[in-house]
Amino acid sequence: MTEQTALPGTGAVEGKPDAAVVRDALGVGVAVGLSGFAFGVTSAGSGLTLAQTCALSLLVFTGASQFALVGALAAGGNPLTAAAGAFFLGVRNAFYGLRLSQLLALPRAVRPFAAQWVIDETTAVALAQPTRRGVRIGFTVTGLTLYLLWNLTTLLGALGAEAIGDTAAWGLDAAGPAVFLALLAPMLKSTTERTVAGLAVLLGLGLLPVLPAGVPVLVAALAAPLVLWARGRRAGGAVVNRDDRAASTAEGER
After folding, report:
1. d(CA 76, CA 212)
2. 8 Å CB contact between 24 and 141
3. Looking at 11-20, 62-71, 202-211, which range is the least confident one?
4. Quick one: CA dihedral 99, 91, 121, 189, positive or negative?
5. How is the chain split among helix, strand and coil, in percent rounded to 5?
6. Residue % of the chain over a pLDDT of 90
């Protein structure tokens, strides 16, 4: 019964039918899982072996970080810089985990295995559910579908890389980032979030021609603290101005 209870802050009385949650989760898992083919082709085209390519999908399993790593290597970037860029992109999953751990409320023995599936897509589907049962179903179905399909298509892409030839000519190297942006865009609801995203894009693209491969991604991560700092200063200035006006009004009334 507790799993059907509406989660705090959702305002929902009851959750969606299980079949609807499964349908949504399968849709996301299949749609994104197919882009693993693009990663397999891109990774193999970047010089990674079949075993290295498959290991990245099996063990790392966070598409944006994987594409960032092989993209930086393909552009001739330093392996350490490429790995650092991929690492910082993957850090976001730790913050997802903080929220999902409260919503899923999984037994301790299961948490290490569930952590492997804490990514953008599973988080988006899980957070869209108003009940704990829905969160668990959405997370599990999305994670399982995406993990199996992503690894299968990674293998197929890596095996077929030689037949396809130049990935840049087919535009497959852009498939992963395009999927990531399509998932991210609807989540940018506040002005602050849009500002951070816009500044990150400007920093990343603007510095691409002048910095080594992989470094622009690291610099783009500074967008969030810069925007939050500017917002804090603006809010602090507004408070000071309001206090000054209040003091002036009080002085005038005397």
Report:
1. 8
2. no
3. 11-20
4. positive
5. 75, 0, 20
6. 31
Question: Are 199 and 223 contacting, i.e. CB atoms less than 8 angstroms apart?
Answer: yes
DSSP annotation of 47 reads T
Contact 227, 196 (CB under 8 A): yes
How many CB atoms lie under 10 A from the CB of residue 231?
A: 14
Contacts 24+ apart (CB under 8 A), 75-83: 75/213, 75/214, 76/213, 77/212, 77/213, 77/214, 77/215, 78/212, 78/214, 81/212, 81/213, 81/214, 81/215, 81/218, 82/213, 82/214
**Helix (H) or strand (E) run with residue 3 in it:** none
More confident residue, 42 or 146: 146
Inter-helix orientation angle 36-45/63-74, to 10°: 20
What CA–CA distance (Å, rounded) separates 160 from 65?
22
Contact 75, 47 (CB under 8 A): no
pLDDT, averaged across the chain: 81
CA atoms of 69 and 214, how far apart (whole Å) = 8
Rounded-to-integer distance, Cα 112 and Cα 114, Å: 6
Contacts of 16 (CB under 8 A, 6+ apart): 129, 130, 134
Smallest Cα–Cα separation from 184: which of 23, 56, 63?
Answer: 63
Buried b (16+ CB within 10 A) or exposed e, 173-200: bbbbbebbeebeeeeeeeeeeebbbebb
Answer whether 96's CB lies under 8 Å from 126's CB.
no
